[in-house]
Q: What sequence folds into this?
């Protein structure tokens, strides 16, 4: 089925989540950055990067997601970037919780 390859329409990710990642993470997590070779590397293209980000989150347990664990400083050489009570954290968390659990 061709629809499997159609880009996922996800305006919440594109308009709210991705800009937070660009602002707070891209300096290290993109080409040329110190975390460029990890599983989390941004390319300035929200549609292209969505699947990579989805692979780092657990919709059934959003706070346990690798993405949020690292963002709050758990085993992260990048340090604590987002506080767990910040608008940015909660925006990402709510997006994760809205995803289907079977991916
Ligand atoms: C100052 C640089 C820096 C910033 C800013 C930064 N990180 Fe990182 N991050 C790293 C480094 C270096 C690693 C690889 C070593 C490690 O895991 O600590 C890493 C690893 C990770 C990993 C694990 C990737 C893997 O392959 O296991 C995730 C997920 C992650 N960071 C998420 C984030 C998120 C989300 C943000 C923004 C909210 C962020 N990081 C901001 C430096 C940074």
A:
């Amino acid at each position: 089925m061709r629809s499997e390859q159609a880009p996922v329409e996800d305006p919440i990710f594109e308009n709210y989540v991705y800009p937070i990642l660009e602002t707070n993470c891209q300096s290290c997590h993109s080409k040329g950055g110190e975390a460029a070779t990890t599983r989390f590397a941004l390319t300035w293209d929200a549609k292209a990067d969505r699947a990579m980000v989805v692979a780092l989150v657990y919709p059934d347990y959003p706070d346990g997601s690798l993405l949020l664990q690292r963002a709050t400083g758990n085993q992260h050489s990048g340090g604590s970037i987002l506080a767990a009570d910040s608008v940015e954290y909660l925006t990402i968390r709510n997006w994760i919780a809205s995803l289907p659990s079977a991916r």
